Amino acid sequence: MNSAVKVNNVYKSFKKGKTEVKALQEISFEVNKGELFGLIGPDGAGKTTLFRILTTLMLANKGEAWVDGFEVVSQYKEIRKRVGYMPGRFSLYQDLTVEENLSFFATLFNTSLQENYDLIKSIYQQIEPFKKRRAGALSGGMKQKLALSCALIHRPTVLFLDEPTTGVDAVSRKEFWELLHQLQAHGITIIVSTPYMDEASLCDRVALMQESRIMEINSPKGITENFKKPLWSVRSADMYKLMLDLRSGDVVDTCYPFGQYHHVVFKKDPHTVEEAKQAIATISAKDLEVQRIPATIEDCFMELMRK
Amino acid sequence: MNDDHAISVSQLTKRFGSFTAVDAITFNVKRGEIFGFLGANGAGKTTAMRMLCGLSFPTSGQATIAGFDLYRDAEKIKKNIGYMSQKFSLYEDLTIRENIRFYGGIYGLTDKQIKSKTDFMVDHLHLENQVDNLVKSLPLGWKQKLSFSVAMLHHPKIVFLDEPTGGVDPVTRREFWTMIYEAAHEGTTVFVTTHYMDEAEYCDRVSIMVDGRVDALDTPLELKRKFNAPSMEEVFIQLARKAKRSDN
User: Fold this and answer.
1) Which of A140, A141, A257 sits opposite B177 (nearest CB)?
2) ipTM over 0.90
3) Which of B43, B118, B130, B231 gives B209 a disulfide partner, CB atoms 3.0 to 4.6 angstroms apart?
């Protein structure tokens, strides 16, 4: 079997008081060996539940799943030996030092820091100066590196990272993604979840998740190319007024703020920039900057949410 | 102090022993502006923001916030600003109605004002069926919109948003930013910190702190031009990589 992960029609729901909350519905996908696969979606989409099922910490209500060729229910022990899991919440022992945490996890997997040193070397070296410090006293970035080292200590074949970059600054985030690409070069399959759409472009393929379902699975490029409507960016001196005008008029299908620009889809697509400017000028500001642009992952995500 | 400035800061400095957390920062924020306050972890953002909110006394320098002097009128500053953080803004074990009443009370609103504010917010945010439910039962996106409305309860001159919109879907995120635009349009000054550079692009102007100093301050478009960078992310990385101190 060539997939590192195979999921077939998985369902999961929870009882919350008298109501039943659907956490996962009709989830099916495959991750190839050595792939860097992203689960992209907001809080509450079902990403963590899916991770917990695949790491054999929770049972699905329905459906089947395999990790590294092993079935998640009957062969859970095999899977636990083979996967690394970094939960979203920092889950190491705060009262143990950096060194003690590492040796604890190494011992659990019947290995040692030395045995797989080549794999974690570049990460561990950054926290080594603090190896006598208690994990609870580390900064956010350091905790994240320690958690990653612990998740890798037994040289897993598949690595699950649940929102590793949430709350991390832009520089640390960039370094973290560079680390993931290095790990991928060691042949490790990586499944990473994130609510930040811009991180999708750093994955080989992504699944866009929303409200317990996968809306689309594709390469980042494939996803943005599937956005079939012509998209325009629009800017004027008063962006708030421009948005209100565009939304209340009859010319525009959708208008979403995107920072310094609004992204606009027209009801009747203009052929040229001039036509687009004229169409907008009938309802709003004249000092317009208008450009035809390619869609981003966020544009696609919002379009999929409308369906 | 210029009347057009909601925040006016000059040479503001905070030292802890021999460590200079905030190093003589100087900048102005215009009334009704959406101002982004960025910096890597450990750059001094939180310390600076705590001073601007009147929660921490500067070592030296001057600041006028919402028309009040930081040294003489810290209490008046607190009454004239709102604060929302992603981590904590509302009491999860109180209902929506109770949270509004609690914060309304803190800011000295009368019972009558609190009642009319509650009705307005319920209507505006479509919370008719949720108003007597615990805050913890609300989806994250609604919590954020509610926290923002609560921070605006007393019509503050300035609202401070500390990493406001992590983790929500892109449509909800834009609804949230629309609320921010609306508040700014009505004259409230919005001061935002965030780690996410695409969020910085929503701001009228952005400052970037490195090692306790403000190393860059301009509109996002102008910053990208100056640093010859395609995105704010790139601008930030160019600046933050120069940092000598970091918690990493």
Assistant:
1) A257
2) no
3) B43
